[in-house]
Amino acid sequence: MAEIKEKSRHGKKPNQKLKPYLVMQYLLRNSDEAHAVPASEIVSYLQGIGICAERRSIYGDIEEINKAMLMIEQDLFLEEAEEELEKYGDESRYIVYNPNKKGYYVRERRFELDEIRLAAESIYASKFLTQRETDTLIDLICGFVSEHQAKQIKHDVLLTDRVKTNNELTFRNVSTINAAMSRIIDGEKHIPEKISFKYLKYTISDIKQQAERRQGARYFVSPYALLLNDGNYYLLAFGDKEQEIRTYRVGRMRDIRLTSQPREGAEAFRAIDLTSYTQRVFSMYSGKQESVTIRFINPLLDTVIDRFGTSGVKYYKADDKHFNVVVNVEISNQFFGWICGLGNKAKIIDPLKVKEQFAEYIEKIKKLY
């Protein structure tokens, strides 16, 4: 410390141009509305990293930061920024002084705390991310709040256990798929192309290690869209073998390759209404689409709207205790399983063939017991 003070008495102080930036970064990390930082603490921090500083210079640095942020964010000239600060005071300041806590804190941030908390929750809920990728992304977005707030966010979102993939290649898979679907790559025109990949599955003999489907034979598909459903990433693609639109779990795809072959299945893809696709395809398993009438008890209205939405779906009163829904769904075991989960609170009304299929589904289950 003595050496720093000695140097400050003679000539120009070194690294002073860095000081306002370092002050701003220190306050970004260590201050918020609940945690104000006194000028003396900032001085100690700067001196600890070899930057000459005193309290009066910190006041000046903070004023310069406030001018600069106004100029950048509101596209003002220097004189206009100074007038703004003079006229509106703390209302226009990026960094303000809290007289009760006797310190400074960052008042204006790029994102609100609740926005960062919501983003963190979404990252933790994403099953397609590995734990390592999750931790990296959480650290990244928590850089937009103070360290005190970051600790609280990480504590809050870790209260619930989450299922995570062990596939470290999901990010790379998404990047390759997006490249295949792109119409411009590196500024050059690109014709969307097919991809090939190996598809994995779990086996009861080793649930920790996934095995390759089709004895390792490659899948060839024309990719059209990436979808998020129930915390998982899915690829919507036209399969060469199936000659129809299918969904594939991105986290179970391995060794994705571009083929340089133009995509097929454009007409089949155009026939799909993406806004209702995930509402119709339960748990991303496809089946034959049917218009079905289902009767529910009135308290389930919110649940049913969450499942089917309102666009293209007909709701009407059945009686004082029930309502009916007419909706297009993919008839599959997953759909029947969802109906079963509602017990006697839901009933398929039409068509007759779907009612019969549902009865057969229940009968098969009964035979197991």
What's the CATH architecture name of the largest domain? Orthogonal Bundle
Number of contiguous helices: 14
* Unreliably modeled segments: 1-9
Helix content: 40-55%
- Please, what is the average pLDDT? 84
Overall geometric form: elongated
Q: How many independent structural domains?
A: 4
Name the beta content range: 25-35%
CATH topological fold name of the largest domain: Arc Repressor Mutant, subunit A
Structural class: alpha+beta
How many beta strands in the DSSP annotation? Answer: 14
Radius of gyration: 29 Å
Helix and strand sequence: HHHHHEEHHHHEEEEEEEEHHEHEEHEH
State the separation between the terminal residues, measured CA to CA: 81 Å
CATH class of the largest domain: Mainly Alpha
Which sheet architecture does the biggest sheet show? 6 strands, antiparallel
Map the helices and strands:
Blueprint: H1 2-8, H2 19-30, H3 39-48, H4 55-74, H5 78-88, E1 95-98, E2 103-106, H6 113-125, H7 131-141, H8 147-157, H9 170-181, E3 184-185, E4 188-189, E5 193-203, E6 206-212, E7 219-229, E8 232-239, E9 245-249, E10 253-262, H10 266-270, H11 274-280, E11 288-297, H12 301-308, E12 314-317, E13 322-331, H13 333-341, E14 346-350, H14 352-367
Antiparallel strand pairs: 1-2, 3-4, 5-6, 5-7, 5-10, 7-8, 8-9, 11-13, 11-14, 12-13
Helix pairs in contact: 2-4, 4-5, 6-7, 6-8
